[in-house]
Amino acid sequence: MTTYLGRRLLQMIVVLFGVSLIIFTVIAMAPGDYVTSKANPNMTEEKKQELRESMGLDKPIVQRYFTWMKNSLKGNFGDSLKFKQPVISVINTYVWNSFLLAVTSFIASLIIAIPIGVVSATKQYSAIDGIFTVLALIGISLPAFFLGLLVIKFFAFDLKLFPIGGMTATGSNYTGIQYWIDVLYHMFLPFLVLTVMNVGSLMRYTRTSMLEVIRQDYIRTARAKGLKEAVVIYRHAFRNALIPIVTILGLSLPGLFSGAIITETIFAWPGIGKIAFDCLSTRDFPFLMAFNMLMALLTLIGNLIADVSYALVDPRVRLK
Amino acid sequence: MKKRLISLLALTLSGMLILGGCQKAEPQPEENNQEEVSEAVEGYIPASDPSLNPVSGREDTLVIGIDAPEEVFNPLYWESAYDKYVVDTIFEGLLTVDEEGLPIEAMAEKYEISEDGLTYKFTLKDGLKFSDGSPLTTEDVAFTYTAACDPSYDGIADFVNVTKIKGSKAYKEGTADSIEGINIIDDKTIEFTLEEVNADAVYDFTTGILSKAYYGKEYSQGNLDYIKAYHKTPLGSGQYKLIETKAGQEVVLEANENYHNGKPNIPNLIYKVTSTETRMQLLQTGEIDMDMVTVNKDNVDALKEAGFLDLHIFPTNGYGYIGMNLENPKFQDIKVRQALAYGLNRQEIVNAVYAGGFADVINVPQSKESWAYYAGDNKYEFNKEKAIELLEEAGWKVGDDGIREKDGVKLEIKFTATSPNVVNDALIPVAKANFEELGIKFEAEQMDFNAVIEKVNNMDFEMFFMAWGLTPSPDASNVFASNGSQNNTGYANPELDALFNEGLKETDVEKRKEIYKEIYQILNEELPYIYLYQRRDMWVVNSRVKGFENQITPYKDYPASLYKLTLE
Lengths: 320, 568
Known about the structure:
The complex is a heterodimer of chains A (320) and B (568).
Chain A: H1 2-29, H2 34-38, H3 45-55, H4 61-73, H5 87-122, H6 127-141, H7 144-158, H8 176-214, H9 217-224, H10 229-251, H11 253-258, H12 261-266, H13 272-281, H14 285-313
Helix pairs in contact in A: 1-14, 5-6, 5-8, 5-14, 6-8, 7-8, 8-10, 10-14
Chain B: H1 2-22, E1 43-45, E2 61-66, H2 81-90, E3 95-97, E4 103-105, E5 108-113, E6 119-124, H3 138-148, H4 159-163, H5 168-173, E7 182-186, E8 189-193, H6 212-215, E9 240-246, E10 250-255, E11 268-273, H7 279-284, E12 290-292, H8 297-306, E13 309-315, E14 318-324, H9 334-343, H10 346-353, E15 359-361, H11 384-393, E16 397-398, E17 404-406, E18 409-410, E19 412-418, H12 422-438, E20 441-447, H13 449-457, E21 463-469, H14 477-480, H15 494-505, H16 509-526, E22 529-542, E23 545-546, E24 566-567
Parallel strand pairs in B: 2-11, 19-20, 19-21
Antiparallel strand pairs in B: 1-13, 3-4, 5-6, 6-8, 7-8, 9-10, 10-11, 12-22, 13-22, 14-21, 14-22, 15-22, 16-17, 17-18, 23-24
Helix pairs in contact in B: 9-11, 10-12, 15-16
């Protein structure tokens, strides 16, 4: 196992280098840069040139890449052109808010989707299966902004049960438990939206996986050997059906940090999604590089976790 | 049975298709040349029933909704409009701007401009202090403007190339170690000398003043990077002082007891981050006291219905326009450009996007509210026949395929559209249909904003739609002068260049008006742009907030009035 991990880590480093080169080139090739995004009618040519120089945008691409690489290896990812603060600190300010929202809705989706998926599979084609499938498809098909606005209108505006947006109460200064209660209270609606959207697909995965396992010969053997149906389903079939789900968990890692831009925007939730999008429109180079490298790193780690857990969970698989 | 049913269904469907196709296209009756112009709704609309106000228990706090600021709270470095609101609340300048866009004294008690127009002398009021109690003197003023000309200054303000403070260029290039044109006479008096006369330079003296003790203790020429660390903890002499900023959520402020006009009436101010989708609801539940809402009929009706909200609707200081590449031969003939203006139903586009009369078609590149505004002699009202007449005169004859051609070149226009954009969504189909009737082929390509800007900067386009935001200064030489830094059409007219120069040098307002009238007459006749519209902005204010009447205009943002407000 250790050799396997060692080899994978070396591979990751190589891949990260390659990814950094690709991302850098693509962003550099995109038309326009930070200065053009300002589109300020009062900016003189000299000013534009000065700004480009101070941002290092006037140097050739290859030189810029090596400067960036050299600095990043020392841990200096530069200052965001938009926020004028170190990129790491900008990301750090917002990413944990997105993470909180994403991880809670992810866990909730799992808790809801897996049992529903299992029941749906064991009672395939029944009325229960039909209802769950329809609900799952509705959840998958509803666009985020529609669901978000609907939920706000109903729960926040009409029933006044939850706040319309934001992460904390206006002008509040809570600490400790009170603070967390306030945050959770504000988080409920966006959490609801994200969960509804995720539950559908997770439920379908579980159902498909479970159905496949139930058809296997070893399940027939278990039944033939006289085991109780509940034991067959929940001890034997279920654990094997979880295998693909476990790999999905690993691959979802980057998604937990990338932010749900539409949901966060509607609920004025201070997440990284909108920040990343705005930085993309304004070609905020340092931020985009750091953020995308973070996503690349998380994707690679997620893949590694998925592969390793696959080997751990499925005795048939050997890691080479 | 099932098979029979299916074949019957198929037969019926195909029958419908055939019959449908047989219908001859009826010739449409000639449409009215004029699209309906709805009555514009503008001005201050007070709440109809303030007793419906749901707000309670917030008698000492004003909550204003804004989009998320970038937390760059420094008058020399802010770039987003939302950062500007916060900066204008925390900092104060020598001068400020009144409702009409004219400069008036703020921290300066008086100011004089020398006979030759080159020297500006400011006398500060007595007893000025920053919000922490430290005194504000001309040292701080000098520091602020010097820092902005520093070699390592990388913000947007440009006192070197635009205001042209004498000696600032040498300071910026490092060949001088102080700025010749900034002269401290004593604690309360300071003089600025410019390289050339500039009637609008006075607006550059509205910049917020930084505390030298706070922002300048580590300063030396060429070494300004450290100042970033202070962006989130600003110190100013403005109406409110910053208590806390929560990224992406809110900015919390408290009244500054040392404010030169007296401590603001409302003790606490919170800027709350709101989203476009929810600001209407937040206003209706009273969770925020004011915000800027998109002006359209639905929103205005809903807000009026709430009963306790005041509406301030006024023309935006800016305009939308269609730009053409004048280096492209087909756009070089004035007749062609005028034909396009006559042949495009601009009113229809405006009605589609800003229904309810919330935008006006314009014919000059200036806001109707500007003192320099002149409406332009030619209204270019939608007239297909006139457009065709002009195209024929210009030598573009209709070819066999219905498209006009001249010297073997077809009259085709490729339109570069930013996406997403509501105006382009309305403009493209209207233009396509209108121009087709003139014998012009019109096609659109869509890409993101930055990509369009890049194409335009490289003159790699034919036609595009964009909008400009304006300042109180009517000078548009950046955009329309022969080598203007923002000239995105390639337009060059020496007569106009001379007039722009004159306009900046002339200090008498009446004479300036005459000069700008001539400028607009030329721009109206020659159409380097096809001017499209000037739309409205709307600020919605809870009726419990008193003191905003007539204080929010295209030239005076609301932050200037915060200290005067009271809560009922």
